[in-house]
Amino acid sequence: MSLTAVQVKNAKPGPRPYKETDERGMYLLVQTSGSKLWRLNYRFGGKSKTLALGAYPDVSLAAAREKRDEARRLLTSGIDPSQAKRAEKAAVRTSTANSFEVVAREWLAKQNLADSTRTKVLWLFESLTFPWIGTRPIKDITAPELLAVLRRVEARGKLHTAQGIKQRCGQVFRYAVATGRAERDPSGDLRGALATPKTRHRASITDPTKIGPLLRAIDGYQGSIVTACALKLAPLLFVRPGELRHAEWSEFDLASAEWRIPAAKMKMRQTHIVPLSMQGIAVLKELNPLTGSSRYVFPSIRSHRDPMSENTVLAALRRMGYSGEEMSGHGFRSMASTRLHEMGWPHAAIERQLAHAERNKVSAAYNYAEHLPERRKMMQAWADYLDVLRDNRNVVEGNFGRVA
Q1: What PROSITE patterns does the annotation carry (predicted)?
Q2: Alpha carbon of 48 to those of 41, 43, 45, 82, 323: distances in Å?
Q3: Does 84 share its domain with 109?
């Protein structure tokens, strides 16, 4: 006699486990604890075996019979249903272990990125990518599926962000191919599928007649002393804004007149030396009594354990009356690069001081001390040149150029 749904529901535990038999080898095993488990007895290869079909009430009588019938079909095809079940579980584990999120996190952990870059990439993944394709087996993700993720970002007008996600996802897919977990990179099929963002030009003042007024405005800044000193050092050192605000006192050697930025903080992940001019040292000595006991040269106003906010210098420029089209935090780098080239300093020395990547792979071996004697002369000449512009004196740029 086959079981009924009422019999299954009303089966009570006894002093010992017992079976309520259904049809074709299936039965309900009632445990002393009260749990009810579906089982199927069958023979394969001359041996008696038992297959678990699930627990009641999660698996109803009808659902258990469907599982039994599927197992019987496998037996008819010469397949052991227990082995098939184990293979299915293994496939699920493999898919989970090789999901896009797992592979992406593994890839990111192996990348030699600056902390700020790593944080940005992680945000792109966690906020804009993982929620939609994170659990998907990476080998199964198609170009249209990836495009749907990018379209959500593009629809919000974030064209640069969409392109950035596509680039990073492509790197993850290529890593998956290299490690045998995917066969191809679907991001390559999306060339031309996204709107092309307009090239962003960071605003910068490079006209000498306008640099002087900017420097005088910085000298007259009425805000925080810490912010004022950051503004004064920005044109003298022309490092990236993130490198400036994360500067630590332990990195400076005023006696040797240099700031040595650790590789972990640099975009190119290489140690970088910034020679200090007399003017730069003077600003640091002015600031030291105020923040010298802190880790950071420019600590946050909320906590000296954290660096200055990334928007502090930018907000100060706006407060001084400079719009986003006129000047940016990165603009001091363009200012120095443009004027130093005009002053006749060697391109190689300028590029090394800007810590730009070497595009020629043959000569890409980075030597952070390369051109250092010349860079020291250049940084002092640059500071002297800025003094002349600040004082609104007549300037002959050649007088501050390279001395043979």
Answers
A1: CB (PS51900), TYR_RECOMBINASE (PS51898)
A2: 7, 4, 9, 12, 82
A3: no
pLDDT above 50: residue 330: yes
Q: For the chain, how far is it from start to end, CA to CA, in angstroms? A: 106
**330 is annotated as an active-site residue:** yes
137 and 246 in a single domain? The answer is no
Task: Return all residues near 289 (Cβ < 8 A) that are at least 6 apart.
Answer: none
Quick: pLDDT tens for 58-106: 999 999 999 999 999 999 988 899 988 888 887 677 666 789 999 999 9
- Catalytic: which of 39, 166, 232, 240? 240
Look up the pTM and report it: 0.57
Which one of 267, 269, 318, 371 is the catalytic residue? 267
User: What are the tens digits of pLDDT across the range 345-399?
Assistant: 999 999 999 988 654 444 445 566 788 999 999 999 999 999 999 998 777 666 7
Is 240 among the catalytic positions?
yes
Q: Is residue 203 part of a domain?
A: no
Which CATH number belongs to the domain containing residue 301 in this structure?
1.10.443.10
Cα separation, 183 vs 380, whole angstroms: 55
Q: One of 85, 174, 210, 330 is an active-site residue; which one?
A: 330
C-alpha 195/C-alpha 187 separation (Å) is 15
Ramachandran class of 321: left when φ > 0, alpha when ψ lies in -120 to 50, beta otherwise: left
Asked whether residue 229 falls in the same domain as residue 376, the answer is yes
Residue numbers of the domain that contains 122: 99-190
Strand (E) or helix (H) holding 260: strand 258-261
